[in-house]
Amino acid sequence: MPKSILDLIGNTPMVQSKVLNSNPNVKLLFKLEGHNPGGSVKDRPALNMIKSGLERGDFDRNSKLIEATSGNTGIALAMAAGIYGLNIELVMPENSTRERVQTMQAYGAKVILTPAEIGIEGARDYVMNKVSNDGYVMLDQFGNNDNWKAHYQTTGPEIWKDTEGEITHFVSSMGTTGTITGTSTYLKEKKSDIKIIGVQPEEGSRIPGIRKWSPDYVPSIYDSKKVDEIRFVSEKEAIQMSRKLASQEGIFSGISSGGAATIALKLASEIEEGTIVSIVCDRGDRYLSSKIF
After folding, report:
1. Where does the Tryptophan synthase beta chain-like PALP domain start and stop, copy by copy (predicted)?
2. Residues tagged active-site
């Protein structure tokens, strides 16, 4: 029987670094989340937030859904909402790439752009105001447990299965923190000594999709006990690695994936042996109008 496009979310492939990793005793694997139908890792939580919210009765087809996003979550929500017949308004900073805005609109969503200088925090404040005063329902990827549970239910089990339980380190950029929280929860249930490394931007660096949150905006789904170490990466390093991934490994991805890969490769050079899995969270084609490529 033919599948819905939503049935193709998950079970993304992993490939081994054949060029950039120079430690023969370390296997470095990239999990290619750009192979999801919406083009990013955010397809997983977007589907779970919409499906679970509908099942609980949190909203229905008459509801006015709204969400703040830096890009990938909005694209995934627009895709899923269209299939479920839901109206959704997506709010993002005006310096987001045109490709991301156009993709959301192509899926049928309304897009509101907030001033670049107030960033994603400003977009979140805009959404909270609409929820408080205009009867909107927020999916709240930053505080919705269906976000991290999507990765507990799918990403973690896939990684464990595909590495045959040999994974020793997991590296993920941190935005909403859903990917790292859910995947860590599952992997540490399987093997408690797996090291979970989160990646955030250095002070002064702006990397789309990953954040070093100010205290008032730390996602409530984040559990610091699930992350063994946080490492920092510069915008320059992340951009350079995105280019290297494309030109040397054939992996075309965005800057947050470059940031995670930067840390994963440093880690590979530090440890004697092991199996590292690094999340490649999206595809590079939605950044072609930016300075990355």
Report:
1. 6-282
2. 42, 256
